[in-house]
Amino acid sequence: MSTEDIMLNLLIFLVGFLIIFIIIYVLYTRKLKSKKKKKDITEIRYLVTKFHLDEAKLPKRKMILWISIANAFIISFVWTFITMLDISFMWQILIAFVMVFALIYSIYEIYGRHLVKKGYQKKGKN
């Protein structure tokens, strides 16, 4: 792989990351501001349930920022990595599927543990 290919892939990653981040952030911010219906953000609900977090204490705006960064990273990283592979489409889809689940689990596990360390866990839970 030449330097030009690496730079092109890096550019694709960065542009994809920025576009996806902006879209996700805007959508989640609108969802949070929605006053008609109480809409849950799935990622926040997952973190609250898995790590026994006190939802009232959570900084939701800050969480939306970090969730948007995480989701944009996952999507753009997997996309860039998969397009670099010179294998059949079926294998690309299979590898992408595994990578997406592994990254979602690992990144949200790290973020959930970070929130627990920050003291957002419900009292009486370990």
Topology:
Layout: H1 3-33, H2 42-51, H3 60-84, H4 89-117
Helix pairs in contact: 1-3, 2-4, 3-4
Description:
The chain has 126 residues and is an all-alpha fold. The protein is 75% helix and 0% strand. It has four helices and no strands. The protein has helices spanning 3-33, 42-51, 60-84, 89-117. Helix 1 (3-33) packs antiparallel against helix 3 (60-84). The longest helix is centred in the first third of the chain and has 31 residues, at 3-33. It is elongated. The mean pLDDT is 92.
Assign a percent range to the helix content. Answer: over 70%
Query: What's the multimeric state?
Result: single chain
**Estimated structural class:** mainly alpha
Overall mean pLDDT: 92
Strand-residue proportion: under 5%
Largest sheet: none
Secondary-structure element series: HHHH
Mind telling me the C-alpha Rg?
17 Å
Q: What best-fitting shape do the alpha-carbon axes yield? A: elongated
Helical segment count = 4
Termini, distance in Å? 48 Å
